Amino acid sequence: QLQLVESGGGLVQPGGSLRLSCAVSGSTLDYSAIGWFRQIPGKEREAITCITSSGVRINYADSVKGRFAISRDNAKGTVYLQMSSLKPEDTAVYYCARRTVYCSGSVRLYDYWGQGTQVTVSS
Asked: Cβ-count burial of 92 within 10 angstroms (0-12 exposed, 13-18 middle, 19+ buried)?
């Protein structure tokens, strides 16, 4: 059974940085696209960015362009989300999710999800 576990969330001041990790177990990452999403209470889950099985990066959220970067290390079975210049509006629960090979901005098309990690940006 494939499992995804996020880590690296926490409290950070505006302008600070965090790196989230998504550790994938139970299957190789080789044929998986991994997406990062976030959700604020009362709002729909939002696609942020995704990386395909071949390493192509796709950005879905203009609000994070130039500040967030996704990367993957297949040998470690881990996908990262480097977040910089964080703003209070980035506060959310961040999730990683997996689908086969290709990315999508649609939450419904991902078949495995992590439990989420809280990111709070506040002074």
From this structure: buried
